[in-house]
Each structure stands twice: as structure tokens, then as C-alpha cells.
Design goal:
alpha/beta, Rossmann fold, 9 helices, about 40% helix, globular, binds nicotinamide-adenine-dinucleotide, NAD(P)-bd_dom_sf, EC 1.1.1.30
């Protein structure tokens, strides 16, 4: 596939053109990814063949699932994460490339120019605390990673997208982009801000062939959620084994976690030509949490 041989077109990033762990060093998995994508082209009519996608937080959970779903549709995927080894592993798996980057270093993103067709703003973290006890530095960290960095990446990607009159921005929001929960002030504020940023991007980008949408998962089976269980138990004063039913799934109509692949399929559809008229929208997949 032609796109696999292209030079990386992420400019002004602190990595060289052949980051450690990409196909040069891990030939077999990269080849497997190539074969998978070639097969998808032939069998499924890959809708994203020839497209370059950047997925932040692509080393784990939802980001890794998105990288796989986009690659399965033929996209060449750049896996961006502060976890360089994790990003390299996913990149090798999908025949793409890794970009080891700490998105909290926003000054490095201010002069960035991205040559991608699809941008998935997905990297995220969580801190659980009452507002009274919330560390200001922890609040700022979440807003920086989950609102300011997406703004800077969109800003870096739009000129190329405008030039080619095509682009897809997909922002991994949350049910917490639309609703609030106690003890998540920074996360809820960042996700509500991301919803606004996404809509402004949709308004400005519409005339240039660029769509921008949010995806709003309920609780998904990922390390981010597994890591919350102890904190949720402590702050709600309940045993850890009750957190899933009493806190996380309490508002769900369908009492199970969302699987990462379910969200990734929605993301791949939003990136496709079938979703060309979908913009400024927020797509829930929360088992009825927000109903
Ligand atoms: N898991 C859920 O239940 C759920 C629900 C709704 C929304 N989301 C959102 O989905 C996104 C992904 O969450 P996940 O559950 O897959 O989490 P995860 O912890 O599995 O993955 C997050 C990834 O982001 C990366 N990351 C964190 N800080 C970074 C930084 N400073 N620079 C670069 N990369 C960084 C991590 O290394 C990790 O690979 C987040 O935005 C989260 O808010 C998750």
C-alpha cells in the first residue's frame, strides 16, 4: 500500500523519521498489519485507504482500539503517546508509526504542523477528588492535556486539511461532556470544553470540507477505568467490588461496560465518507446512562 512507504508528515516533532519500534525494527508485526489492511481493502472495500490518521493516547485502551479500527479500514495510523514502547507496539501491529510525545508539553505543540487527514483527540487522564480537596496542579494538568492540547493539535492540522478541502476531527469526549458527576470537576470541565471546541471547529471547518464531532462513551473497559476503582471506593465509602454496580453502572439502562472496539467502530464510521454530513455532533454510546 502506497501510504505505508510515505515519510512521516508530522513536522517539528521531537522524533526522527523512523521512531524506535516501528516497522524497520519489527518487520513481522508491521507486515501482518499490512496484510490485514490489504485484505480489508479487497474484502471489505476499505473506506479509509490512502488516508493518514493521528490518534493521541493510541498506546492503550480506546486509542489503541481506534488505531486498529482505522487501520482495518485502510488508514495509515500515527500512534501518539507518552508511552513510547506502547505506541511502538500498537504502531507495529497496525503497520503505522509511533510518535512518542508528552502532550502536556504544550509549548512544543504551538509551532507544530500536522499533515494528517484524520485527527483523533483521545489522550486522557482522570483525578477523583472533591472540589475542596482538588489539587490545583492536578486540575490544570487535566485541562491542559484534555482541552488545550486538542486545541493545539486541531490548530496544527487544519491548514493542511483546508488546503486539501478534506479533514476529519474526532474528539473523544465522554458522557461527562454532556452530564456531570461529583468528584470529577476537572474531567467534566475539560470534556464540556472539548464539546465547545469541537462545535467551533465544525462551524469554521464546514466550508473547507472538514468535519468535527465528539464521541461520548459511558464507562468503557480500559485501564483508565480499572485505575479508578480504588479511588471511587474510597471517596464513596463503599467496597471496591461494589464500585461497578453502585457507581459506574448505576445510571446505565444496559448494565455492562462498553467495549473499546464498540467505540472504535463508531470512530471509524465518523471518519468515513458515509459521515460526510455529520458535523458539530456528539455521539453517545453509554448504555442509556444519559437517557
Ligand atoms: N474508559 C472510559 O470509560 C472512558 C469513558 C469516556 C471517555 N473516555 C475517554 O477516552 C480517552 C481514552 O481513555 P482510555 O480509557 O482509553 O484511557 P487509557 O488510560 O487506557 O489510555 C490513555 C492513553 O493516554 C496516554 N496519555 C496520558 N497522558 C498523556 C500525555 N501527557 N501525553 C501523551 N499521551 C498521554 C496514556 O499513556 C494512555 O496510553 C480519554 O480521553 C478518556 O477521557 C474513557
Amino acid at each position: 500500500m502506497a501510504e505505508a512507504t510515505q515519510e512521516p508528515q508530522v513536522e517539528q516533532i521531537p522524533v526522527g523519521p523512523s521512531p524506535a519500534g516501528t516497522e524497520a525494527q519489527t518487520g513481522a508485526p508491521a507486515l501482518a498489519g499490512e496484510v490485514e489492511r490489504a485484505l480489508a481493502d479487497v474484502v471489505g472495500g476499505a473506506s479509509l485507504a490512502g488516508k493518514r490518521a493521528l490518534v493521541t493516547g493510541g498506546a492503550s485502551g480506546l486509542g489503541a482500539a481506534c488505531a486498529r479500527a482505522l487501520a482495518a479500514q485502510g488508514a495509515y495510523v500515527i500512534v501518539a503517546d507518552r508511552d513510547g514502547a506502547g505506541a511502538a507496539a500498537v504502531a507495529a501491529d497496525v503497520g503505522g508509526e509511533a510518535w512518542e510525545v508528552d502532550l502536556l508539553d504544550t509549548s512544543a505543540l504551538e509551532s507544530l504542523k500536522l499533515q494528517v487527514d484524520i485527527l483523533i483527540n483521545n489522550a486522557g487522564i482522570q483525578t477523583i477528588s472533591s472540589i475542596v480537596d482538588f489539587e490545583p496542579a492536578a486540575f490544570r494538568r487535566i485541562i491542559t492535556l484534555m482541552l488545550e492540547a486538542p486545541f493545539l493539535l486541531i490548530r496544527a492540522a487544519l491548514p493542511h486539511m483546508y488546503e486539501q478541502n478534506y479533514g476529519r476531527i474526532i474528539n473523544m469526549s465522554s458522557v461527562h461532556g454532556l452530564r456531570a458527576s461529583s468528584f470529577k470537576s476537572a474531567y467534566v470541565a475539560a470534556k464540556h470544553g472539548l464539546e465547545g471546541l469541537s462545535k467551533v471547529t465544525a462551524r469554521e471547518g464546514g466550508a473547507h470540507g472538514v468535519t468535527s464531532n465528539c464521541v461520548n462513551p459511558g464507562y468503557v473497559r480500559t485501564p483508565l477505568v480499572e485505575g479508578q476503582i480504588a479511588d471511587q471506593a474510597r471517596i464513596h465509602g463503599i467496597p471496591a467490588e461494589e464500585v461497578l454496580t453502585e457507581v459506574m453502572l448505576a445510571k446505565n439502562a444496559i448494565k455492562r461496560l462498553v467495549e473499546p472496539e464498540e467505540i472504535a467502530n463508531l470512530v471509524a464510521w465518523l471518519a468515513s465518507d458515509q459521515a460526510a454530513m455529520v458535523t458539530g455532533s456528539s455521539y453517545g454510546m453509554d448504555g442509556g446512562w444519559s437517557a
